[in-house]
Design goal:
A four-stranded parallel sheet has the order 1-2-7-8, sandwiched between helices. The protein has a two-stranded antiparallel sheet with strand order 3-4. Strand 7, helix 2 and strand 8 (137-141) form a beta-alpha-beta unit. 24% of the residues lie in helices and 19% in strands. By secondary structure, the protein is of the alpha/beta class. Residues 1-197 form the BAAT/Acyl-CoA thioester hydrolase C-terminal domain. It holds the Pfam family BAAT_C.
Length: 207
């Protein structure tokens, strides 16, 4: 990526959502040249499948599919199926964020029904501080679901999951979620401009 003609360098920033978020956390923890990492409703443990890097394997966070719930509309709610990464059997799935070279931004939808994004962001903050690192920036959005897209995208409260091939409920209330998408987009740009370009602010978005 650093060799791409459109990349300014000398370092890069990462932005990831959901599973892509924990992949970005892993990249920031193990790869050099990453100055800033922003994640949207991400887990602090490796999820879905084992992660292989050089001679190391990080197992995926285990789950209990029997804990799923079904909404009145017949959608699957998966928020309770994921096991706690802080419990001893799941420690190996935790991503070693403290190895990262740059700061973190966590965007958290507080009505996320895919997984416990607020809880995971708190784990990240406590882990980083326990290792003498700076506290990450965490922005909480009430009434906001899992799929926080760029501004003006319609709220995605449910869809057929690409891995499970089942209709999944993601949460979010239309007004709160839409406003969160506008603000989160601005916050992400400000974060990257600060840590990649050294600028403190960018031109604000308008509703």
């Amino acid at each position: 990526m650093l060799q791409h003609p459109k990349v300014k360098g000398p370092s890069v920033g990462l932005l990831g959502f959901s599973k892509g978020g924990d992949l970005c956390l892993s990249m920031a923890s193990f790869l050099k040249g990453i100055t800033a990492t922003a994640v949207i409703n991400a887990c602090v443990a490796n999820t879905i499948a084992p992660l292989h890097y050089k001679d190391m394997i990080i197992p995926n966070l285990s789950s209990d599919p029997g804990k799923y719930k079904i909404t009145e509309s017949g959608l699957l709610n998966l928020v309770d199926i994921w096991n706690n990464p802080l419990e001893k059997p799941n420690h190996q799935s935790l991503i070693p964020l403290e190895k990262a070279q740059g700061p973190f931004l966590f965007i958290v939808g507080m009505d996320d029904h895919n997984w416990k994004s607020e809880f995971y962001a708190q784990i990240a903050s406590e882990r980083l501080q326990a290792h003498g690192k700076d506290r990450p920036q965490i922005i909480y959005y009430p009434g906001t679901g899992h799929c926080i897209d760029p501004p003006y995208f319609p709220l995605c409260r449910a869809s057929v999951h690409a891995v499970l091939d089942q209709p999944i409920f993601y949460g979010g209330e239309p007004k709160a979620h839409s406003r969160a998408q506008v603000d989160a987009w601005q916050q992400i740009q400000t974060f990257f401009h600060k840590h990649l370009n050294g600028k403190k602010s960018v031109k604000p978005s308008k509703l």
